[in-house]
Amino acid sequence: MIADRTAFIRAETRLLPVPHAPEISLHVADEATELWRKTEEELGAIGLPPPFWAFAWAGGQALARYVLDHPETVRGKRVLDFASGSGLVAIAAKKAGAAEVTACDIDAFAIAAIRINAEANGVEVRAVQADLVGEDGGWETVLAGDICYERDLALRVADWLFSLNARGAAVLIGDPGRSYLPRERLEQVARYEVPVTRTLEDADIKKTGVWRFLGR
Q1: How far from 118 is each of 41, 162, 198, 201, 211, CA to CA, in Å?
Q2: pLDDT band at 1 (very low <50, low <70, confident <90, very high)
Q3: Which three-class secondary structure string do you get for the chain?
Q4: Residue 204's pLDDT is what?
Q5: How many structural domains does the chain have?
Q6: Residue 20 φ/ψ, nearest 5 degrees
Q7: How many Cα neighbours within 13 Å face the side chain of 143?
Q8: Which of 95, 97, 92, 94 is nearest to 76 (CA)?
Q9: Distance in angstroms (rounded) separating the CA atoms of residues 81 and 83
Q10: 187-197: per-residue pLDDT in tens?
Q11: Closest C-alpha to 82, from 129, 116, 16, 33
Q12: Which of 21, 105, 200, 210 could form a disulfide with 190 if both were Cys (CB 3.0 to 4.6 A apart)?
């Protein structure tokens, strides 16, 4: 089945440089709705989650840019890219010198996309299909882009990330001002103007922050 997903991704996307991190190229879709329809037809199922893996979201682009510009955040470390989607942030971490990078996502298509994109960028990333919230794999740096678009998910993930931060992991969140970003628990370490896909966002450029928990 992975081979089928791989063929589908290659057929329905194009390998293009990431606007805000052009050192990295991703297999991305031209149009969200059409890809969503084709994904549902491919699997014979309706109501599937959006193809998050097929786009370079603002939070991920900002986080990737920050990691590439501040390689000390990941160099020589065990890194987790949570809800990785396309694998953009994981690839950035590996390019910046991380010793080991795990990219997790619950979507099987995302896992295939992560593997394809890592190969296209000449890096090795461990792709894991799992919801790792509540687990601790001993990661030294944890990266999470665009995770605050849904209230319950944002709260659950924020509490987990806070616990990892409290035990000593460096946790960085990339977010363009989603409704459920827990700003009261965070401080901004960088801000970017990120080009995005207008069909997915409310603007062509999103002002996007990279955040860490207070007290670090």
Answers
A1: 26, 28, 26, 26, 25
A2: very low
A3: CHHHHHHHHHHHCEEEEECCEEEEEEEECCCHHHHHHHHHHHHCCCCCCCCHHHCCCHHHHHHHHHHHHCHHHCECCEEEEECCCCCHHHHHHHHCCECEEEEEECCHHHHHHHHHHHHHCCCCCEEEECCCCCCCCCCCEEEEECCCCCHHHHHHHHHHHHHHHHCCCEEEEEECCCCCCCHHHEEEEEEEEEECCCCCCCCCEEEEEEEEECCC
A4: 84
A5: 1
A6: -95, 0
A7: 34
A8: 97
A9: 7
A10: 999 999 999 87
A11: 129
A12: 210
CATH number at residue 63: 3.40.50.150
Digit-coded pLDDT (tens) for 39-77: 666 655 555 566 889 989 999 999 999 999 999 999 999
Nearest CA-CA partner of 89 in 111, 114, 72, 52: 114
Residue 58 burial (10 A CB sphere; 0-12, 13-18, 19+): buried
Distance CA 108, CA 114 (A): 10
Q: Return the number of other C-beta atoms located less than 10 Å from residue 135's C-beta.
A: 12
**pLDDT digits over 123-173, tens only?**
999 999 999 999 999 999 999 999 998 889 899 999 999 999 999 999 999
